[in-house]
Amino acid sequence: MSSIIDQVSKRKTLAIISHPDAGKTTLTEKLLLFGGAIREAGMVKGKKNSKFATSDWMEIEKQRGISVTSSVMEFDYNDYRINILDTPGHEDFSEDTYRTLTAADSAVMLIDGAKGVEAQTKKLFEVCSQRGIPIFTMINKMDRETRDPFDLLEELEEILGMRSYPMNWPIGSGSDFQGIYDRKHQHVEIYDASNPNKVKIYPVSDIEGADLTELLGEAAHQRLVEEVSLLDVAGDPYDEEKILNGDLTPTFFGSAISNFGVQSFLEHFLFMAPAPVGRVSSEGYVDPSNKDFSGFIFKIQANMNPAHRDRIAFLRICSGKFERGMSVKHPRMKKSIKLSQPQQFLAQERNIIQEAYAGDIIGLFDPGIFQIGDTLCGGKEFTYSEMPLFSPEHFSRVSIKNALKKKHFLKGLQQLTEEGTVQFFESTSGLDEMILGVVGELQFEVFEYRMQHEYGVDMTLQRLPYQLARWIEGDSYKPALFQASNAKPVKDKQGRHVMLFENEYSLRWAQERYPDLKFHSQSNFS
Ligand code: G4P
């Protein structure tokens, strides 16, 4: 039996971050196909396939055809165990998407070559960047007309502040797309539009050699030589440390739909991406190879199986080995619990697992004992750092239609804030004003629907004009400072001071007016 260290070193846990339609589902599918985890394309793609929209309470989701279930996918490739965390992106974009990133050790940033860096990618990038995890960039859809590759790299720097190191370089795009030049392996991979799955590889001993002119044609060859020498001279050098710190992004070009460049991306990724990294806890740094099991819950999903109306808590294992049926400590609840029905996920199928290691994600049946951010430990008791709250983008004032239902409302609110569906804020004005915040607008509908159907509470949600929440740091802060401004002083569920702003402009105004105060986009800034 292999040791915990061996098992941990084989694991890579990643999240794919992208804007809707960049090709995340397509890329995920191709990766799973390589690992033999699925047999045909179309198995992951829930969003346009009603067969997979299984949750019953989420009638809204069914109507809109949104998938909720493919939360984690794992597969094996070349002796590695790869865990892909799904980051819901379309209308189901929510705080869950951000929280999922806290469970990943690296991110793959997928960009549509014709569109460049888009809004959602930027938001997800910022969360990854704050965590300092390595980010691997894949520029997709090279089989279509794309923007100039240098422009795309410049955009990474201008919009995201991220320097890049192209691992390969495209030879043309769209109808002129001929393939890629792999800078590390020094070979050309030729793309054949009529048979894109069949990649032909030509070793390159001299990039200026006549054999390449013959292969690519004079104009394309000359352009490749010029562009690659420009990268060599003026581009950033390859720097492993910067890559692992998230300061330099290795960049790849390819076409997910044609499965072109995907395998070579995967192999480079596996070589460069980190194995599971340790986490900071109340007892200091916990190494993944520590023999005692530990982990934290980053996501709770209600009623994944309509037959059981259960909740599943997703736990990222941070250290040690998990064994089915083991007893662990639940420090927040101050009790021991037995983990008897752990589940592992592959797309829609759930499998009962026997063992898992640091880096893996397991799903735990939750009879209502877990909250997002909970730590579970097999050995000595400790807790991992608190799971941050992320700034919502939509806010509503909430009132209950029937005051007699207040108790039910509070119970539902408790449950749904624990699951992370909504964030709750209270006005500091002395008025009994309750405000809900969500990252994705759909969450308001989910909240209303579940309150009505599970707790029998009808409410009125009145939209407010705010778009940003900032947690405030600074001793000189008083809510009264902001009385005359458009911003709204509130407190979060833990009683921390938060300011709601209408836009970036009013946030900047506050930052300039009160330089002693710091305005954080996440709750755990200390
Ligand atoms: P998402 O999960 O990021 O939202 O993207 P998804 O994979 O669903 O891809 C969005 C669209 O882009 C799909 O087309 C998909 O086929 C296409 N696509 C993905 N990768 C590539 C690529 O490398 N090249 C080209 N040319 N297209 C790509 P669709 O028409 O919206 O959906 P479908 O009918 O093909 O499923």
Describe this structure in words.
By secondary structure, this protein is an alpha+beta fold. 25% of the residues lie in helices and 30% in strands. The strands form eight sheets. An eight-stranded antiparallel sheet has the order 27-24-26-25-29-30-28-31. Strands 2-3-1-4-5-11-6 form a seven-stranded mixed sheet, sandwiched between helices. A four-stranded antiparallel sheet has the order 7-8-9-10, covered by helices on one side. The longest helix is centred in the middle third of the chain and has 17 residues, at 218-234. It starts with a helix and ends in a 6-residue tail after the last strand. Mean pLDDT is 88; it is low at 46-70. Residues 18, 20-26, 140-141, 143-144, 255-257 line the site of guanosine-5',3'-tetraphosphate.
Could you tell me the number of beta strands?
Answer: 31
Main beta sheet strand tally, sense and closure? 8 strands, antiparallel
**Arrangement of strands in the largest sheet:** 27-24-26-25-29-30-28-31
| Secondary structure: helix percent | 25-40%
User: N-to-C terminal Cα separation, in Å?
Assistant: 42 Å
Principal-axes geometry comes out as: globular
Question: DSSP helix count?
Answer: 13
User: Kindly state the mean pLDDT as a whole number?
Assistant: 88
What radius of gyration results from the CA coordinates?
24 Å
Structural class: alpha+beta
User: Poorly predicted ranges (pLDDT <50, ≥5 residues)?
Assistant: 46-70
Small-molecule components bound:
guanosine-5',3'-tetraphosphate
Per DSSP, what share of the residues sits in E-state strands of 2 or more residues? 25-35%
